[in-house]
Write a structure and sequence with these properties.
Layout: H1 2-20, E1 26-28, H2 35-52, E2 55-61, H3 69-79, E3 90-96, E4 101-107, H4 109-113, H5 116-131, H6 135-154, H7 170-200, E5 251-253, E6 259-266
Parallel strand pairs: 1-2, 2-3
Antiparallel strand pairs: 3-4, 4-6, 5-6
Helix pairs in contact: 2-6, 5-6
């Protein structure tokens, strides 16, 4: 009996972390997505969460009740056991359709990864989808942008005011790089052609005028150097500004007393 009780307690102890980390990463309470879209987004969110060791979740609801969007998101995150590790690392995007509210809340390592600056760039990028009711497209873009932000954070250089964040999908990044690659190729080809053309020219200019004078044909009785003019070039050096903008992440306390970061607004 005692042995059976010990085995039961051990099983429960092992099961609790699994339950805490097994929360659905896409919760469509507002009914904005099809089953296929939920399945696809859930798979992408799970892959991203596992790769970076923090929950990346999407939640929709019809109403916020009497709460502000950011408070609702933080409480939902805490009350439903989201977040990985001792610090409950994670980020959650919330949409509430009744008044078209949105919020991005962060926790644990997610606070450092998603700075205030990074959240502003991220929200500006995804809100254009939500404004035209393209919810699946906006959620896909959120996961894509979150991966870029998390990759920067893991490299030790999180995106902030001192490291601009430019969010483009892979295809756009490739297309944007093509003109630059074409210019570089054209420059290399131009230099190569110039070198080849120079090698084909055997005639060389003579800088000594004596070479063009036949012996005894001219006699120079007097020579000298005369100052003609002076060229002065002025270069403007702009003064460096001493002002600087702060960065990082602002935080607040949820109703459970835990620390969160985040931002919110209307779409």
């Amino acid at each position: 009996m005692k042995r059976a009780l010990i085995l039961l307690l051990a099983f429960l102890a092992l099961s609790l972390p699994a339950l805490a980390e097994g929360q659905p990463l896409v919760v469509d309470g507002a009914g904005l997505l099809t089953d296929v879209e939920i399945e696809s987004l859930s798979a992408a969110a799970a892959s991203l969460s596992d790769e970076y060791g923090m929950d990346v979740a999407i939640v929709t609801t019809k109403s916020l009740g009497n709460k502000a969007a950011l408070d609702y998101a933080a409480d939902y995150f805490d009350d439903n056991g989201y977040g990985r590790g001792a610090r409950r690392d994670g980020v959650m995007l919330l949409l509430a359709t009744a008044d078209r509210d949105w919020a991005i809340q962060t926790s644990g390592r997610g606070i450092g990864a998603f700075t205030d600056y990074g959240q502003k760039v991220l929200s500006d990028d995804i809100l254009r989808y939500f404004k035209r009711d393209d919810y699946a497209g906006g959620f896909r873009r959120f996961l894509s942008d979150a991966e870029i932000i998390l990759r920067g954070y893991e490299s030790g250089r999180p995106y902030d005011v001192n490291r601009p964040l430019r969010l483009q999908p892979p295809l756009q990044r490739l297309l944007a790089a093509l003109p630059i690659a074409a210019l570089i190729s054209a420059a290399i080809a131009g230099v190569a052609l110039f070198i080849l053309s120079r090698g084909m020219k055997t005639a060389r200019p003579a800088y000594d005028a004596d070479r063009y004078v036949r012996g005894g044909a001219i006699s120079v009785s007097r020579s000298g150097d005369y100052f003609l003019y002076r060229t002065r070039t002025r270069v403007h050096r702009p003064r460096q500004s001493s002002s600087s903008s702060g960065g990082g992440s602002s935080t607040f306390k949820s109703s459970s007393g835990r620390t969160h970061g985040g931002s919110s607004g209307k779409y």
